[in-house]
Write a structure and sequence with these properties.
Layout: H1 6-17, H2 19-32, H3 34-40, E1 45-46, H4 47-54, H5 58-70, E2 74-79, E3 82-87, H6 89-94, H7 104-118, H8 121-127, H9 132-136, H10 143-147, H11 151-173, E4 183-187, H12 193-201, E5 206-211, H13 213-222, E6 231-235, E7 248-252, H14 260-273, E8 279-285, H15 295-307, H16 315-325, E9 328-333, E10 339-345, E11 348-350, E12 353-356, E13 367-368
Parallel strand pairs: 4-5, 4-7, 5-6, 7-8
Antiparallel strand pairs: 1-3, 2-3, 8-10, 9-10, 11-12, 12-13
The chain binds S-adenosylmethionine.
């Protein structure tokens, strides 16, 4: 006989163990275009009509659609004795490809890349390394050569990462008033999704997207919204090449890719490039102070294990890295949602006076101590 709490404990275990099936339902529905077909139809469709439009089997389609209903990403209507399916508000907003807030590319990236690396989690824990060699047969000594192992992979990665900022970008950038910083450089700025949000939130700023040459070229070619004149590009390697002049450097989801040693090197380079009073804004999924939550940040940290050389960190761990690089006045805001923002500044003596050029809550002008 088990204890009275056993059924609940077992059902929790069961739910966790089968979590991957839920992910696969979403991945398959996205991949097949279920939500798109329903968004395009003038009214709710029965399973047969969905199967015909998707070119899928009746049996499989009906099972998938019914599971989507239970997951609340589809709704059911009765019509002429048939079950008719339609999108819910959740799927219309986040799972239809044409929605401006669509997360479809992220789901497809999770399905086609992340999921395959997670199949080797136990091995990643054994050897403390990402799993591109096991999952894709590519060497991973150069991390982004493995991540960008083909043009298609690079584009899928860029599209996936863009989806996140279309939903969370504004909130994260509003965690601090960044309006005093006029020249902003988004290091590892990828497709420019965050740069776009930054330019729209802070009318007076000029944003430079700094990234590897192939990424910048792909951003120019495929992400047309970047016709905005306050957004520019700079190709380079942030570990080796000179960094563009800027008042503020953004590092969004960059440090989590790298070891403490590589982060320290990058932050030291940024500190050197920073003018007096200049700053660095780190945007990452922040772990709780003891590192034991929230669960999503812990899972992301394991994701960094299977896919990168880094990890997610606590605010204190970022403070330590920033302080070692010479930054001071470190402030942390856990913006609502998963991502948090940490702003740190470089104070400096200028002509024998200590100068801080920028206030955080508002523009303070030049303050001399
Ligand atoms: C995890 S992605 C984050 C992208 C973007 N900041 C975001 O939050 O969506 C890391 C970015 O760093 C860029 N990157 C990696 N190594 C780099 C290097 N050595 N120099 C410049 N950019 C680099 C990648 O191309 C990629 O765009």
């Amino acid at each position: 006989m088990g204890s009275p709490g056993e059924p609940a404990a077992l059902s929790l275990l069961d739910e966790c163990a089968r979590g991957f099936m839920v992910s696969q339902v979403l991945f398959a529905a996205c991949e097949l275009g279920v939500f798109d077909v329903l968004a395009e139809a003038p009214q709710a469709l029965d399973a047969e009509a969905v199967a015909t439009r998707l070119g899928t089997s009746s049996r499989g389609t009906e099972l998938l659609l019914d599971t989507c209903v239970t997951l609340k990403v589809l709704r059911l209507e009765a019509g002429g004795g048939k079950a008719l399916y339609g999108n819910t508000e959740l799927s219309s907003t986040y799972l239809v490809r044409s929605s401006p807030r669509s997360q479809c590319n992220m789901l497809l990236y999770l399905a086609r890349t992340t999921y395959l690396c997670w199949a080797h989690l136990a091995q990643a824990v054994r050897d403390g390394k990402n799993q591109y060699p096991a999952a894709f047969g590519v060497p991973s000594d150069e991390l982004f050569t493995a991540i960008y192992r083909s043009e298609g992979e690079r584009l899928q990665f860029m599209r996936a990462l863009q989806d996140v900022w279309s939903v969370h970008g504004r909130r994260v950038l509003a965690a601090f008033d960044l309006s005093p910083f006029r020249r902003i450089c988004d290091l590892g700025g990828c497709s420019g999704a965050l740069a776009k949000e930054c330019a729209s939130l802070y009318a007076g700023c000029q944003v430079t997207i700094f990234d590897l040459p192939d990424v910048v070229q792909a951003a120019r070619k495929h992400f047309l919204f970047l016709e905005e004149e306050r957004i520019g590009f700079h190709e380079g390697d942030f570990f080796r090449d000179p960094l563009p002049d800027a008042d503020l450097y953004i590092l969004a989801r960059v440090l989590h890719d790298w070891s403490d040693e590589a982060c320290s090197r990058l932050l030291a380079r940024i500190h050197q490039a920073c003018g007096p009073g200049g700053g660095v804004l780190i945007v990452e999924a922040l772990l709780d102070a003891d590192g034991r939550g929230p669960l999503t940040a812990q899972l992301y940290s394991l994701n960094m294990l299977v896919q990168t050389e880094g990890r997610e960190r606590t605010p204190t761990q970022y403070r330590t890295l920033l302080a070692a690089a010479g930054f001071s006045d470190v402030r942390c805001q856990r913006a609502q949602g998963l991502y948090g923002a940490i702003l740190a500044r470089k104070s400096a003596f200028n002509n024998g006076e200590m100068v801080t050029l920028y206030g955080v809550e508002g523009f303070l002008g030049i303050v001399r101590y």
